[in-house]
Write a structure and sequence with these properties.
Elements: E1 11-14, H1 22-27, E2 32-36, H2 41-44, H3 47-57, E3 61-65, H4 74-87, E4 91-96, H5 98-110, H6 119-122, E5 133-137, E6 149-154, E7 159-164, E8 172-175, H7 185-203, H8 211-233, H9 238-252, H10 267-278, H11 282-297, H12 303-312, H13 322-340, H14 357-366, H15 378-387
Parallel strand pairs: 1-8, 2-3, 2-4, 4-5, 5-8
Antiparallel strand pairs: 6-7
Helix pairs in contact: 4-5, 7-8, 7-9, 7-11, 8-9, 10-11, 10-14, 11-13, 11-15, 12-13, 14-15
Bound molecules: 5,6-dihydroxy-NADP and zinc ion.
Length: 389
């Protein structure tokens, strides 16, 4: 276990009746609020009216930015950051899924940056200051409600790049599972695949002696495996939605990575290339790529980890030969993703072919990977992508 500093300061209001605290929390950061949201789901569900009511009750000045797209673009970041400057906004209130929250993080930083906002991603300019961010989460998936990261797309260069900075972590997040009742079956499945992927990316690490962290990861993975199919079948099942929502936050808020040291992820960089070129749903891309990544890297060095994954997560009989346990674990994952969650199991059905695979593989293999569970060469990435077709 590595040395670490534990500092996960997002204040979380979890549960059904917590939005009544929204006004007081926003007020603690100032008077001018920029409300950001996506394509309209919050208007359809009635959440928008509730939020506006709370803001009015608290006597705050409201500004709005809507239309943030899934796989949010740098153009949306620019619109929001410019508004923050123009109106001297005090706090951003992001209401939505990961896309809205991610874009809002870079609007918050953009308030204090005078260059091209893509520099946060393209040039990795330092991010040391940002407006305070408050979130109301409507989709359990990315963990953006409690983490320091965000992923932005540049449609001109076909790049989708993640960036992290401590100042981007939301100050306060409202997690009301009932707000996810309206999430479609498809987005519920994709979101669950994303949560599971965050956990697997972290679980498959080289750091030994991680009993506590591994046990937490296993518990979180089993939570997703147990409740995602329930939420798909019964969208208003509170227990399922609540467990998924809390798992989403804890999968990636830093706690399960803090003591592992650097552990660059593998499937996420590949998926980000796919959504950069084809604008596909993040969780779906991960679902397709992950089992291929597993089969590709199942070898004598990694066997023990896959065996542990099979026994602990999928409860496979530990008396079986090791290789059989490992392969059965991958099969269980495939059944979960493609049968229980009914996600598409190949890229071809999404209209993707190998046209950009060379560029994608080149970029992924250049992405820092020295401490990765298994280092990935360009050819490795190409093999995984081709196997995903
Ligand atoms: O835009 P609206 O109308 O709100 O509709 C959204 C959108 O169409 C809809 N939705 C959200 N909440 C809803 C709802 N529909 C009905 N009822 C509700 N309560 O769902 C659609 C997808 O929303 P989006 O925010 O795009 O989904 P998600 O939360 O999965 O976010 C995906 C983005 O986050 C990035 C992904 O790459 C992708 O760009 N990620 C962010 C991470 C982070 N910040 O740490 C890590 C992740 O690995 C990921 O890369
Ligand atoms: Zn993800």
């Amino acid at each position: 276990m590595k040395d670490f500093i534990y500092n996960i300061p997002t204040k979380v209001y979890f549960g059904r009746d917590q939005l009544s605290h929204l006004g007081e929390e926003l007020k603690s950061f100032g008077n001018k609020v920029l409300l950001t949201y996506g394509g309209g789901s919050i208007k359809k569900s009635g959440l928008y009216s509730r939020i506006v009511e709370e803001i009015n009750k608290a006597g705050l000045e409201l500004y709005e930015l809507n239309g943030i797209e899934p796989n949010p673009r740098v153009t949306s970041v620019a619109r929001g950051a410019d508004l923050c400057k123009e109106h001297d906004i005090d706090v951003i209130l992001a209401v939505g899924g990961g896309s809205v929250i991610d874009a809002s993080k870079f609007m918050a930083a953009g308030r204090y940056y005078d260059g091209d906002y893509w520099d946060f991603h393209g040039k990795k300019v330092p991010i040391e200051k940002a407006l305070p961010l408050v979130t109301v989460l409507t989709l359990a998936a990315t963990g953006s409600e409690m983490d320091t990261g965000g992923v932005i797309t540049n449609p001109v260069t076909h790049e989708k790049i993640g960036r992290q900075a401590d100042v981007l972590r939301p100050k306060v997040s409202f997690l009301d599972p009932t707000l996810t009742y309206t999430v479609s079956r498809y987005q519920t499945a994709c979101g669950s695949a994303d949560i599971l992927s965050h956990l697997m990316e972290t679980y498959f690490s080289r750091e030994p002696g991680m009993y506590l962290t591994d046990s937490v990861l296993v518990g979180l993975m089993k939570t997703v495996i147990r409740y995602a199919p329930v939420a798909c079948e019964e969208p208003t099942n509170y227990e399922a939605r609540a467990n998924l929502m809390w798992a989403s936050s804890w999968a990636i808020n830093g706690f399960t990575r803090i003591d592992k040291g650097p552990n660059p992820w593998s499937c996420h960089p590949i998926e980000h290339e796919l959504s950069a070129f084809y604008d596909i749903t993040h969780g779906l891309g991960l679902a397709i790529v992950t089992p291929r990544w597993m089969r590709h890297f199942l070898n004598k060095d990694t066997l023990e980890r896959f065996v542990q994954f099979g026994i602990e997560v999928w409860e496979i009989d530990y008396n079986l030969p090791k290789k059989e346990i490992a392969l059965e674990a991958i099969r269980c994952l495939e059944d979960f993703l493609f049968k229980d969650l009914a996600l598409t199991d190949n890229l071809s059905d999404l209209g993707i072919d190998d046209e950009y695979f060379e560029i994608m593989a080149e970029r992924v293999s250049n992405y820092s990977g020295a401490a990765r569970f298994q280092d990935m060469s360009k050819q490795d990435v190409l093999d995984i992508l081709n196997a995903s077709l």
